Amino acid sequence: MYTQSSLSRRLSPQAPSGLFAKELLGRDCSLEKLFAEQPVESLDPGEAAVWQGDRAQHVFQVVTGAMRTVRILSDGRRVITGFLFAGDIVGISFRDRYPTTIEAIAPTRLRRLTRQRFEDEVARHPGLGPERFERLADEMSATQDQVVLLARKNAEERVASFLLSLARRQPGGDEGTVELPMTRLDMADYLGLTIETVSRIMTRLTRNGMIAPAGRHAIVVRRPAALAALALEDDEDEIDDERLARAA
Amino acid sequence: MYTQSSLSRRLSPQAPSGLFAKELLGRDCSLEKLFAEQPVESLDPGEAAVWQGDRAQHVFQVVTGAMRTVRILSDGRRVITGFLFAGDIVGISFRDRYPTTIEAIAPTRLRRLTRQRFEDEVARHPGLGPERFERLADEMSATQDQVVLLARKNAEERVASFLLSLARRQPGGDEGTVELPMTRLDMADYLGLTIETVSRIMTRLTRNGMIAPAGRHAIVVRRPAALAALALEDDEDEIDDERLARAA
DNA sequence: AGCGCCTGTTACGATCTGTCACAAAATCGC
DNA sequence: GCGATTTTGTGACAGATCGTAACAGGCGCT
């Protein structure tokens, strides 16, 4: 059901050593080192690393490639709760079961650690607990943004937000070429839209000159500022007044 | 701005000691103890404890009452990212700034800790780091469910899911009376709907006999199973087969 | 090079939710 | 207690997005 196109080839050449700069800042990256000891596994596009509902026994780090986290509702509706790229760690916050299926979008290489081992190491090394917490806090923040997107943004704003967030996650994405390794269906299921709506919006953004297609799975952001305005980036804010919430 | 009003007097007699049973299970609750040392502050309905965009200097625990976390977009659109009830801790995962305004819905009593102090205590006591992490992981899980709700559920399913989740958070909520301290507008902004749609759906659920109004800010769940079916509870699952995610 | 499949695009009617208007009910303040 | 304000409920209508369907184009395979 998932035929793979040659997409993969387009992804790799510029792929960084495993982490984007943003991920590295202000961290000692010991989790990074922990995973670095593990062997690398490979997944073809469409292959799953774990399935929704299975007992959660591992934690993963994506080395290169791209993955999606998919949740299927009882009646078949599909939601993608996130995309994973090089350097991302997934599984940190899981309880007993995997809440999503985690599948490769492009050819992907990853490393795994058993949760047991992971927890042991976190307990052993004092720096790892906080780092794990930090990563989860970042994930939480991104998920909150996704809630805002889904609750109150229209289709055009959703797509604009999505393209920008992808651009930010890719080295030189702003103003440059942004790779879209996922299908339109993936984008739709991530943005709470249909595939047709995503397609129409992409066409409209192209007509407006905000983006330009670069093959089917990449775009060039031509007017980043306009796109950002559309995306309703809520600048975190002009609310600069120091009204203290009263000191206890 | 925070009139230390005489609210404390209104302190509800039947209020539990500050935590629902569910919150307590499997935890040593040392964070609980940490907050217990702090003085109690009171908020009137509509009063904010912190404002979106302000520097995040405190962590809070709700003692009694109910609060909402509100994010306002640049053009005024409003999103409620969550509701807080007795025992809930908020601020654990914040970075530099508060991402939301946190306001009282009902008369509320809470305790606060400076982030500095909070971090110091977490660093000092080995049990606190994991407990903090656990709480954040629970929050993450709830937010993921909210993403699914917003991405793929229709209005009726959203309201049903909401009512059930509230019922679960309230002692004896299943089958009993569920308090809805928030306004219809709050519900709408939480569920990504309009106030009119929420109102219509509530009416429809009442006509269907699934719920019965109990005053304007409470309902009785008459057919919990039917409501659960509507809410698309995706049972986490019948996917019981032990297909290993390929052992390395 | 030619063929076939899959993904993506475009069109159009259907549907759900939003918008606007207004009435009823509850709450607040004096 | 009483009027004013806020909140909630309801209906008619509009609009955005969906769902179906037909078509186009790229890519892999032979």
Task: List the SSEs and their pairings.
The structure is a homodimer of 248-residue chains.
Chain A: H1 7-11, H2 21-24, H3 30-36, E1 41-43, E2 48-50, E3 58-64, E4 66-72, E5 78-85, E6 89-90, E7 101-104, E8 108-114, H4 115-124, H5 128-152, H6 155-169, E9 177-179, H7 184-191, H8 195-207, E10 211-213, E11 218-221, H9 224-230
Antiparallel strand pairs in A: 1-8, 2-7, 3-6, 3-8, 4-5, 4-7, 9-11, 10-11
Helix pairs in contact in A: 6-9, 7-8
The structure holds a DNA duplex (30 and 30 nucleotides).
Short description:
The first copy, chain A, is α+β, with helices and mostly antiparallel strands and 248 residues long. Chain A is 38% helix and 21% strand. Chain A has a 4-stranded antiparallel β-sheet with strand order 1-8-3-6.
Backbone shape of chain A: globular
Percentage of residues assigned to helices of chain A: 25-40%
Low-confidence segments of chain A, ≥5 residues, pLDDT <50?
1-27, 236-248
Structural class call of chain A reads alpha+beta
Please describe what this structure looks like:
2 copies of one chain form a homodimer. Chain A is α+β, with helices and mostly antiparallel strands and about 250 residues long. Chain A is built from 9 helices and 11 strands. In chain A, strands 1-8-3-6 form a 4-stranded antiparallel β-sheet. Chain A has a 4-stranded antiparallel β-sheet with strand order 2-7-4-5. In chain A, helix 6 packs across helix 9 (about 225-230) and helix 7 (about 185-190) crosses helix 8 (about 195-205). The radius of gyration of chain A is 19 Å and the shape is globular. Residues about 1-25 and about 235-248 of chain A have low confidence and may be disordered. At the A-B interface, strand 2, strand 5, helix 5 and helix 7 of A face strand 2, strand 5, helix 4 and helix 6 of B. Chain A binds a DNA duplex (30 and 30 nucleotides) through helix 8.
